[in-house]
Amino acid sequence: MSPKYACLAGKTLCANKILLQYNFIMKHVNVGLIGFGTVGSGLAEVLLSQQERLQKRSGLFIRLAKVADISRKTLPAQFADTALVNDAAELINDPDIDIIVELIGGIQPAKTFVMDAIAAGKHVVTANKALLSQEGKEIFAAAAAKGVEVGFEASVGGGIPLIKGLKEGLVANNILSIMGILNGTANYILTRMTDEGSAFADVLKDAQDLGFAEADPTYDVEGVDTAHKLAILMTMAYGMNITHNEIVTEGISGIEPVDIEFAREFGCRIKLLAISRNHGDHVEARVHPTMVPNSHLLAAISGAYNAVHFNGDMVGNVLFYGQGAGKMPTGSAVAADVMDIARDIAAGSVGRVPSLSYLPENIRDRAVTPLDQLACPYYFRITALDQSGVLAAVATVLSRHQISIESVIQKGREEGGPVSIVMQTHTAVESAVAAALAEIDALELSLRLLCESGCWRRNRESLFVGARRAVPLRHDNRRRR
């Protein structure tokens, strides 16, 4: 697609309808924006407020030409030169639009808009992690076949340049592992629970009142949003096809203040982590609450901030950190994609860098480690009346399944009352832990599993003490030791 041109400075001469310019010709790249919500308006403000800076860095005039939004009657006054329509097809079918930016979120109609734009030969920018993690294989294949680019920097990590860093900065590395905090809402809640000793429900309500959490926070607090983002990172890091549905996912809604305190005793902070490890013939893929040692950089990430830790075979450990959401940080990331594509259009180098870092023909299916094959240390929290035989009964079951206890902590001892007992194990296999738990359930003990690899555990009302729902935490002894 040919960029538009406009003479901006210097004396010009016309000869045989050829326009010559002594100084320079500024190339115009027109952008069509679908969705003028929080992120969409942020992009518009970035393009306007940083226009001169972007021109100095690129020699391009990036113009927000049209906006499609069904809920708006007008645009703010500063965007008087931008046309507002209520039909995205008007942008997609406009021959003067070079780049379509989709910022409405969700699967449909976003997918239709993206696919129609690609079919029309438009380049696409999106922040839609749900769409890419579920339908990315089809979208990227269509873009490659049509010879257009898809930018998605803002889909993971908000304003953090994770995608570009992974796609270009770490291109010479075999990525061995990914571990990160990818949801600001969950991290904000866990930070306040840790610092204030507050309960999950109380902090969540405050977060909603302050605008840090959605009215329906399910995707954020149950790990779904994080799984979407991990799927995108894994596709780029390993050159593999994966959707978020293949990632074991658990949230933080079952975390209680007592879990925070036990983590503190072990020198850790609880974080909702995305974790993947590359084993060559298979890869781990999971999202779950994790006990992160205080000595690890991720333990210090507080509030609504995000951070991702990569380990590459050449570069070693790399940490990306910054604001993972918000109007202007995310708008900045979308603008970076627009700039990259605009530069490629102007230079005639579209497709210079593959959208997913790997060439499309080199992205393949790879096995994801089955849940029952994961091996790691576990923590068990048992709440029961202080009676003889409880600890011995649990220890016997664990021993029968080759699960070795490393240490035990007991809290809250009151004669005849309930006590909390935490057992820390050596490395164990998930299948053995699952079998042991089935036996422990039969003992009618109140059990709370604190593990690294697992899944949601069944609810159990103990005959000793009314038990809260069991939920897993995990710990990585490779980082703890």
UniProtKB/TrEMBL annotation:
Residues 379-452 form the ACT domain. NADP(+) binds at I34, G35, F36, G37, T38, V39, G40, S41. Its EC number is 1.1.1.3. Gene3D superfamilies: 3.30.70.260, Dihydrodipicolinate Reductase, domain 2, NAD(P)-binding Rossmann-like Domain. GO terms for molecular function: homoserine dehydrogenase activity; NADP binding. NADPH binds at K129. SUPFAM superfamilies: ACT-like (SSF55021), Glyceraldehyde-3-phosphate dehydrogenase-like, C-terminal domain (SSF55347), NAD(P)-binding Rossmann-fold domains (SSF51735). GO terms for biological process: methionine biosynthetic process; threonine biosynthetic process. L-homoserine binds at E214. InterPro entries: ACT-like_dom_sf, ACT_dom, Asp/hSer_DH_NAD-bd, HDH, HDH_cat, HDH_CS, NAD(P)-bd_dom_sf. The keyword Amino-acid biosynthesis applies. The active site is at K229 (proton donor). It comes from the Bacteria. Keywords: Amino-acid biosynthesis, Methionine biosynthesis, NADP, Oxidoreductase, Threonine biosynthesis. It catalyses: L-homoserine + NADP(+) = L-aspartate 4-semialdehyde + NADPH + H(+). Pathway: Amino-acid biosynthesis; L-threonine biosynthesis; L-threonine from L-aspartate: step 3/5; Amino-acid biosynthesis; L-methionine biosynthesis via de novo pathway; L-homoserine from L-aspartate: step 3/3. NCBIfam families: PRK06349.1 (NF004976). Belongs to the homoserine dehydrogenase family. This is Homoserine dehydrogenase.
